[in-house]
Amino acid sequence: MSSQLKVTSLNNAAVERLTLEMGKRLQAAAGRDVREKLASGEIKIVNGRYVASSDSSLRVKRSSVFGGGRPKKQGMYSA
Question: Where are the domains of the chain?
């Protein structure tokens, strides 16, 4: 006899299904982005690793949350 899957909450099943769907979409979008960057020459593969051009296109560009940015911490031994 086969045992049936017992779902204790329908909400848990729906959330899990949505999580899997969003994961698939995110992976597909990342794949498209890499293919486009490879085709345009922004990145290339050298020895099995992605190598960016000199403008560092693999870095994420984020705006500052604090407006002007935070000052850097001074080290213990800096003058």
Answer: 10-41
Distance CA 5, CA 10 (A): 12
For 29-73, what is each residue's pLDDT tens digit? 999 999 998 999 888 888 988 888 766 555 666 666 666 555 556
Q: Which of 46, 42, 24, 23 is nearest to 34 (CA)?
A: 42
What φ, ψ does residue 52 adopt, rounded to 5°?
-85, 160
Per-residue H/E/C for the chain:
CCCCCCCCCHHHHHHHHHHHHHHHHHHHHHHHHHHHHHHHCCEEEECCEEEECCCCCCCCCCCCCCCCCCCCCCCCCCC
What's the pTM value of the predicted model, to 2 decimals? Answer: 0.51
